[in-house]
Amino acid sequence: MSKAHFGLVGLGVMGENLVLNAERNGFSSVVYNRTYSKTESFLEGKGFGKKIQGAIDLKEFVSKLERPRRILMMIKAGGATDRVIDQISPYLQEGDLLIDGGNSEFRDTERRVAQLESRQFGYIGMGVSGGAKGALEGPSMMPGGTKASYEAIESLVQKMAAQVEDIPCVTYIGPGGSGHFVKTVHNGIEYGIEQILSESYDLMKRVGNMTGNEIADVFCQWNQTEELSSYLVEITEICLRAKDPEDGKDLVEKIIDKAGQKGTGLWTVVSALELGVSVPTIYASLNARVMSSLKKERVEAEKILSSSSSFKFDIGTIENSMAPIQDAVILSCIASYAQGMELLKAASKEYSYNLDMCSIAQIWKGGCIIRSRLLERIQDAFYVDSQLPNLFIDKWFVEQVNRRLPGLVKVVAGASQAGIPVPCFSSTLDYINSYRTSRLPQNLVQAMRDCFGSHTYQRIDKEGTFHTEWIS
Ligand code: NAP
Predict the structure, then answer these.
(1) What is the CATH number of the domain that holds 452?
(2) Could you give the CA distance from residue 463 to residue 135 in angstroms, rounded to a whole number?
(3) Which of 32, 41, 74 to mutate to test the pocket of ligand 1 (most atoms within 8 A of CB)?
(4) Fewer CB within 10 Å: C terminus or N terminus of the chain?
(5) Ligand 1 pocket residue status of 59, Cβ below 6 Å
(6) Residue-level pLDDT at 310
(7) How far apart are CA 69 and CA 66, in angstroms?
(8) DSSP string, 242-285
(9) How high is the pLDDT of residue 47?
(10) Which CATH number is 89's domain given?
(11) Domain C-terminal end among 176, 200, 223
């Protein structure tokens, strides 16, 4: 049998779909999975009749690939990835290429790129987004590493990626762990938007007493708009319409209100703290998941901490697409993207990634979970000014803020009085209010710091550094 063009390690949800994608695009493939029975059932099932062969061990796997070998690892991130690299490396030869498509921590990827490239192997850390369907039909991919290694896989990933107006949703991101850094921030933005949409559902349900189908109708309307047309709004409508086959009631209402997380949201927030970037909307979404995990405690607390949940306020009507909530959702989604983009710019500077914000917005426009029409505007904003300090000062976004802020204020104020948590909406409001305030109260913080710790301060009326003996 002739040698295969492409190798895949890890036949999990993502791996099996990605190898089918590669094969459909003309790349004969060989697959290896730690548990061989999975390889067998794949070859007898979804992989049957395709130009895909299996391998029982890594030695056989490598021997079945044409050189230079292009091997995609789609396995659990962390120690498992290091173990597979150690196991496969003895069989690789100079110029062969390993691609890590898992959700690896970007510092792990920095280390692996340095180690593997120094041994004359190519190593690409590639964020992949789109879930199982995207992996099969065309995901968005964020590859980082050396330019030479990227060029060796370019023809493969360009064919496999989603295409938007004939442009593939993949591009060279930058050196080292930049691809995984960009994927991490993508996931942070995703956390934000998921929480934002959930807050809007909660208000429609609790304040508007709306049914799942009625709320789904609103999401359907929102999905027709330039500002909110997106994959996540689309699937929210689907989730809200789904019924429990046992009793025909809304399935969403049967799901326990505890959200899991696998690390990328946390890494986004930790990176933001390390780099001094303000990401309150994204942080609020992470914290909301943490609070959701305290289910038992929340059930007990509800019995003893009084709440004002009967308060009603104007959340709009189906006829006006729940206008105030829509305003809150739009500004919060913009904030989530804006904060993510800020973080990418700061990382680009700190780690010399030389990220192209315009291209990143471009490759997120198709295939990935955060794809949306809004990304078109984001791309335009960075096209006009690649060094744009913040999305919120781009002309189109300024108009959005000035038009929609009263709606966001109404929602945050009303939700506060009703005792309904809206962490992303309220964090977004504080973010915008802080950003548009030329004088914040940190003058007093500076005074206190100087008072107790002689930390010194600067003045608005004179150059220099000052200290005052505050306590006589
Ligand atoms: P999955 O379905 O849970 O499959 C995990 C795969 O990793 C399996 O093939 C498993 O092999 C293999 N594996 C685990 N530990 C291993 C070890 N120590 N040595 C060798 N192989 C090992 O995972 P998935 O959802 O496809 O995700 C794969 C990667 O892509 C992860 O890093 C994930 O974070 C990332 N990702 C997932 C999605 C998504 O939507 N699911 C999207 C983007 C990125 P066995 O069969 O032998 O256990």
Answers:
(1) 1.20.5.320
(2) 57
(3) 74
(4) C
(5) no
(6) 78
(7) 6
(8) -B-TTT-SBGGGGS-S-----SHHHHHHHHHHHHT---HHHHHH
(9) 97
(10) 3.40.50.720
(11) 176
Number of structural domains (the chain) is 3
**Is 164 within a domain?**
yes
131 C-beta closer than 6 A to ligand 1: yes
Catalytic residue numbers, as ranges: 183, 190
Q: Which stretches of the chain drop beneath a pLDDT of 70?
A: 308-309
Same domain? For 201 and 234 the reply is yes
Do 151 and 280 lie in a common domain?
no
Q: Is 294 within a domain?
A: yes
pLDDT value, residue 349: 97
If asked whether residues 52 and 142 sit together in one domain, one would say yes
Q: What pLDDT does 231 receive?
A: 98
Asked, for residue 40, whether it belongs to a domain, the answer is yes
User: How much distance in Å is there from the Cα of 268 to the middle of ligand 1?
Assistant: 21
Reading phi first (left if > 0) and then psi (alpha if -120 to 50, else beta), residue 286 is in: alpha
Judge if pTM exceeds 0.85: yes
| 250 plus 344 within the same structural domain | yes
Atom 25, ligand 1: which residue's CA is nearest? 13
Contact indicator for 47, 75 with CB cutoff of 8 Å: no
- Give me the pLDDT at residue 308, please: 66
How far is residue 372 from each of residues 45, 70, 224, 305, measured CA to CA in Å?
34, 31, 11, 40
For residue 441, whether the previous peptide bond is cis, meaning omega lies within 30 degrees of 0, is no
Q: Which position has the token pair 């009085």?
A: 417
Share of the chain above pLDDT 70, in %: 99
211: CA distance to ligand 1 center in Å?
37
Q: Which of 76, 136, 183, 232 to mutate to test the pocket of ligand 1 (most atoms within 8 A of CB)?
A: 76
pLDDT at residue 58, rounded to an integer: 98
- Tell which atom from ligand 1 comes closest to the C-alpha of 75: 7
Q: 77 CB under 6 A from ligand 1?
A: yes
- Count other Cβ atoms within 10 Å, centred on residue 151: 11
Q: What is the DSSP letter of 373?
A: T
Residue 391 Cα to ligand 1 midpoint, Å, equals 35
In terms of domains, do 118 and 172 share one? yes
Domain enclosing residue 454, as ranges? 441-472
In whole angstroms, what separates CA 400 from the centre of its chain?
23
Gap from CA of 370 to ligand 1 centroid (Å): 21
Task: Look at residue 472 in the predicted model and tell me its pLDDT.
Answer: 81
- Residue 1 in any domain: the answer is no
**Same domain flag for 190 and 127:** no
